[in-house]
Design brief:
Blueprint: H1 11-24, E1 28-36, H2 41-47, H3 49-52, E2 56-60, E3 66-78, H4 85-97, E4 101-104, E5 113-118, E6 136-148, E7 153-161, H5 167-183, E8 194-199, H6 202-218, E9 223-234, H7 240-250, E10 255-261, E11 264-270, E12 273-278, E13 281-292, H8 297-308, H9 311-329, E14 332-336, E15 342-346, E16 349-360, H10 366-373, E17 381-382, H11 384-394, E18 405-410, E19 415-419, E20 423-427, E21 430-440, H12 445-463
Parallel strand pairs: 1-4
Antiparallel strand pairs: 1-7, 2-3, 2-10, 3-6, 5-6, 5-18, 6-7, 8-9, 9-17, 9-21, 10-11, 11-20, 12-13, 12-19, 13-16, 14-16, 15-16, 18-19, 20-21
Helix pairs in contact: 6-12, 7-12
The protein binds the ligand C=C(O[C@@H]1C=C(C(=O)O)C=C[C@H]1O)C(=O)O and magnesium ion.
Amino acid sequence: MVRIIQQSHGYAAFEHAFEKAYQFKRDVLFSMVIPIDPVDPLQFYEAGYQMFQGERSFWQDRDGELALIGVGNAQTFTSNPLNDRFTTIQQQWSQFLEHAVYFGVQKIGTGPIIMGGFSFDPRQEAELEWSNFSDGYFQLPSYMLTIDQYGAAFLTTNIICSEGDHAKTIWARIQANKELLFTRLQDHIKDANVVQTIEVNPERWKNTIGFVVKRLQKEEMEKVVLARKIKVEFDGKKRSDTVLERLRDDQPDSFIFSLEVLDSCFIGATPERLVKKENESILSTCLAGSIQRGNTTEEDNRLGQLLLHDEKNLHEHQLVVNMIKSSLTDLCEVVHVPSQPALMKIRDIQHLYTPVKGIASKGISILDYVRNLHPTPALGGTPTHLAMDVIREEEGMNRGFYAAPVGWLDAQGNGEFAVAIRSGLLHDHHAYLYAGCGVVADSDPESEYQETTIKFRPMLRAVGGTIK
Ligand SMILES: C=C(O[C@@H]1C=C(C(=O)O)C=C[C@H]1O)C(=O)O
Ligand SMILES: [Mg+2]
């Protein structure tokens, strides 16, 4: 288990943060990082259930380079409808960090990091199930576990020091919480059972695809991504712990994430990176065009080859490549895009995949990249503004955080965001699952329907729902 953290470790720096709070008459962040013995990320997440339910977050990247697990919420950062949400979050975050006092290890993936995401479309009217979320929502965890690419573990503790607070009392409470997080014996997870799985209006959705195909043939538009929803009902509240466990076991090649907000949890396993920034290095991904996996290696290879040469899918894919290339070119010194897509094979599906690399221009934060990239034609369409109007008019639901950027951001503007597909919302006694597909002028409604059915599988399996 964890090395017992010396009670006095960092206390002098902590007191210094209080002195600054008095001096500047404002809240001052104290952020402390210590190396700890390795601990299983899910065990840490579960340990936070009793004390911090509704304030937990989970992130594990698809390369096995970083896991971040946050429990407890030291501070929330939210957007407001009047200003650009990316700028608002960035400004609040930068202001909040002024005068911060740091103690201990300093490396990327530790220290003050906010975890959260954005909604797909702030202009869509919110549906009831998404009412806990604002269009930009981030949490600074009180306690954050980091596992780096070598398996080394670090614990970050973030405390807000306010004028008038009593340093010794707060310090004692923090130490006590930490002990609990690392020593609490788990109560057996009592999980809810599925009562029923409902596909929301599948026939109407197919008709909509047919209708949008006609519009694509007539209008100056090349692609629109349309999504649909499955609602799973349980006999109680579904715990995100068990869903995460299932996703982690089944989808090792995806980003696994969760974001609890009060009694809701947005959760998923997505293969799609939007953007990663580590110092000046930028990575992004074009992912669009899909085919099922085969039952044998031969069949699987044959399907892969079919996808690599299929005109409809190559077109769907190329539109994403064009947009991502031009968005990144605005913010990078150099951008490298391979000339041909490769295959990305994950458990249930294979995709056309073009990884993109770049060198960041000076002074640009990860959120600037997110602003420029979202929504890519992998989830919106081409041209973006027309496709977004069609989604608003035809989709008949609110995507919430589905298909939108989810990830983390540090004090230096480094971070990583994935596109939150293969995802769902746990709320009350329900899970709302989402999947979509790129509709182009030669799309066939029935095949698009089948494609989305495959894309639902990872989340259906993880929550225990079944469809015919
Ligand atoms: C929209 C989704 O996936 C997107 C659409 C794809 C397609 O239509 O081929 C492929 C990957 C994703 O960019 C989803 O999974 O919900
Ligand atoms: Mg497709």
